[in-house]
Amino acid sequence: MTELRLVVFDCDGTLVDSQHMIFEAMRRAFDGLGFVCPDKDRVRQIVGLNLIEGIALLAPELDDEAHARIAAGYKASFREIRQTPARREPLFPGIYDAIGAISQAGYLLGIATGKSRVGLAATLEVHELAPFFTTLQTADDAPGKPHPGMLERAMEETGIAPENTVLIGDTVFDIEMAGHAGVAAIGVRWGYHPSEDLRRLGALTIAEHGEELPGLVEDVLADHGRMRGASASK
């Protein structure tokens, strides 16, 4: 590569399988306040959103105060669950090696996630991933997905332009965020939203397995750069 390029990963549903912890924390938060928790499929559909926004979608009949109380209960429950080794978020197959290969190829790596900074740090520490990443963007740093703020901050911190940046994610919120930021997007099949929805929102390709990611990153960034160049020359 003759110029630096940036690969930004989502976390939950892309790097780690956190759905069971997320649902358990949400269930405890709703139950603790005497509310009925939505089922697991509905909870999975809001993964990636700002926590308050996601809870509001799950329980539109409740007011803002109730949403805030559920969010507080969720955070407390998630911290408690994280302390149980058997309940930690496992990496998806092939992810660790894919991250290492992409980094070794000379790309800069980042994360854009709906997790808190504390939560992300804990996940990266458990899986010994922190040294790979140059820029970490969380729900504490910018508006939630699909707003492009986290991607824009990542590009600003690294000095890398949109045509040299790719986002890898598993939800429509990830793909929409990439589109709003003018960034190419790769969807992953192992996450929480259907692949057809990711393609519909603009994912250029779908990774079937973690091992495919290094090759897909190279191909997508090459194609994206050519398309941006052709558009600019018109």
Question: Would you write up a description of this structure?
Answer:
This protein has 234 residues and is α/β, with parallel strands linked by helices. The protein has 2 domains: 6-17 and 90-233, 3-Layer(aba) Sandwich (Rossmann fold); 19-87, DNA polymerase, domain 1. 49% of the residues lie in helices and 11% in strands. The protein has 10 helices and 6 strands, in the order βαααααβαβαβαβαβα. The protein has helices at residues 19-32, 40-45, 51-58, 64-82, 95-104, 117-126, 149-158, 172-181, 195-201, 213-233, and strands at 6-9, 108-112, 135-137, 165-169, 184-188, 205-207. A 6-stranded parallel β-sheet has the order 3-2-1-4-5-6, sandwiched between helices. It is globular, with a radius of gyration of 18 Å. Residues 230-234 have low confidence and may be disordered.
Secondary-structure blueprint:
Blueprint: E1 6-9, H1 19-32, H2 40-45, H3 51-58, H4 64-82, H5 95-104, E2 108-112, H6 117-126, E3 135-137, H7 149-158, E4 165-169, H8 172-181, E5 184-188, H9 195-201, E6 205-207, H10 213-233
Parallel strand pairs: 1-2, 1-4, 2-3, 4-5, 5-6
Helix pairs in contact: 1-4, 3-4
Which features does this protein show?
234 residues, alpha/beta, Rossmann fold, DNA polymerase, domain 1, six-stranded parallel beta sheet, 10 helices, 49% helix, disordered C terminus
